[in-house]
Amino acid sequence: MKKTIMTHLNDPGKLEQLYRSNKSAFKQAFAALYPEIQDRPLAEFWHERLNHSSIDTRTKKEWWFLIILAIAAGLIAKFPALFQIEEDYFYARNIGFVVFPVLTVYFARMHQLAIKRMIPIVLASLSGALFINFFPDYPESDTLRLSSLHLLLFLWVLLGWTFIGGKTHLPEKWPEYLKYNGETAIMTALILVAGGIFSALTIGLFATIGTDIEAVYFDYVGIFGLCAAPIAATHLTRYNPQLVGRISPLIARIFSPLVAAMLAIFLIAMVYSGKNPYNDREFLLVFNALLIGVMAVIFFTVSGIEYSPFQKREIRVLLLLSFLTLIVNGVALSAILFRISEWGISPNRTAVLGANVLVLAHLLLVTTQLWRSRSETLNIASIGKAIGWFMPVYFIWSILVTFVFPFVFGFDR
Q1: Between 20 and 30 A from 120 (CA), which of 66, 155, 258, 274?
Q2: Which UniProt keywords apply (predicted)?
Q3: pLDDT of the residue at 67
Q4: How far is 222 from 74, CA to CA, in rounded Å?
Q5: Does 410 fall in a domain?
Q6: Enclosing domain of residue 8
Q7: What whole-number distance in Å separates Cα of residue 221 and Cα of residue 71?
Q8: Do the beta carbons of residue 299 and residue 321 sit within 8 Å?
């Protein structure tokens, strides 16, 4: 660890990653190294950070800021009740605006982003909100469903750009964003479990005295709690990385081989079952959902192995998983091409075809880097960059499907 700290002493981002990957080891190594490097400004900063034991008053301000964000998210979620909007209509179009904008505000404040960097992100978010809410109300419209779904991807990438500091030329920073997503998902799940237990106890206690508060509780406390969970989880993972810093790599390390085994067994079982995605539309949808899920596992695992002592083994597992995923992607891509040749172009088929082509290209890029990194000289950073390079491509694709498809295929189709 000492050698790694010395290597990255002029790179604040790398030192932060090292610190979050193993807090105790970093402290010990830095303490032993500090007498040699104490004349460097960054070393002095880390010395103060690691040895400052008093309560940071900024933390209290941060929690007040979080409360305001949670209230704002809750109020957005309550728009149907506040403005007499049909719930299905509102949530189908605006579910992404409940949390993504407030998290964007959180990271903009955290990085103290300049106004010039925030203006494009704000304008893009507002454009998405206006477009999807002025979309003609055709309940059976496939383009409406596709726009609403890809708007989530659009907002997710905007949040990622805010997370990495509003800079579009840092592909190596995107794996950290993916890691944040995984850690926040874990912490959010823990918070929701605790909140569910608390809610059950509260409702049960009031029921013992003959007072039914279930409807009122879930209409107000429940919905605000749901909105607050990812915000609180974000804050906890940012300022207390040790909470899940060791759990998320462990989960990734356990699930990667399990997913690889499941995928291999599934492909064999599919051959013998007689079911295939060529003539079964629902099966094709499940097949593509599986593909996206496995991609997420690969990317999350890559984001957590940079400082793992089991790099070689994990890269071999990821390489196997990537090869299997390429097979799944090839089957899905051939199936959608077959369906287009048989039944012609439609919004859904075009969207699935484009998504499969993008995933295939991205997987090939990542798999190539994994293959190169299997040797003695590991180059994890190159894998991370391979992931990051493709994020703007996904963003462009989300723009096409969200904003262009309705004009190409028709709003009512």
Answers
A1: 66
A2: Membrane, Transmembrane, Transmembrane helix
A3: 92
A4: 10
A5: no
A6: 2-51
A7: 11
A8: no
Residue 138 lies in a domain: yes
For residue 18, count other CB atoms closer than 10 A to its CB: 22
pLDDT tens digits for range 224-256: 999 999 999 998 888 776 677 666 667 777 778
Task: Tell me, yes or no, whether 28 and 63 share the same domain.
Answer: no
384 occurs within a structural domain? no
Residue 6, pLDDT above cutoff 80: no
Residues 391, 397, 400, CA angle at the centre, nearest 5°?
150
pLDDT at 33 over 70: yes
- How many Å apart are CA 302 and CA 252, to the nearest integer? 9
**Neighbour count for residue 58 (Cβ, 10 Å):** 10
Cα 168 to Cα 164: distance, rounded to the nearest angstrom: 9
Q: How far apart are CA 335 and CA 349, in angstroms?
A: 10
Cα separation, 253 vs 318, in Å, equals: 10
The vertex-335 CA angle with 332 and 341, nearest 5°, equals 145
Can you give the pLDDT at residue 406?
95
Residue appearing with tokens 């909100």: 129
Do 341 and 303 share a domain, yes or no? yes
Q: How far apart are CA 277 and CA 334, in angstroms?
A: 9
Q: Is residue 411 domain-resident? A: no
Whether 352 and 336 have beta carbons less than 8 Å apart is answered as: yes
Task: Take residue 54 and report the two structure tokens written for it.
Answer: 């008093």
The answer to whether 336 touches 353, Cβ cutoff 8 Å, is yes
> Cα separation of 26 and 49, whole Å?
12
Structure tokens at 409: 């295929």
Give the global pTM.
0.82
Cβ contact 387:175 at 8 Å: yes
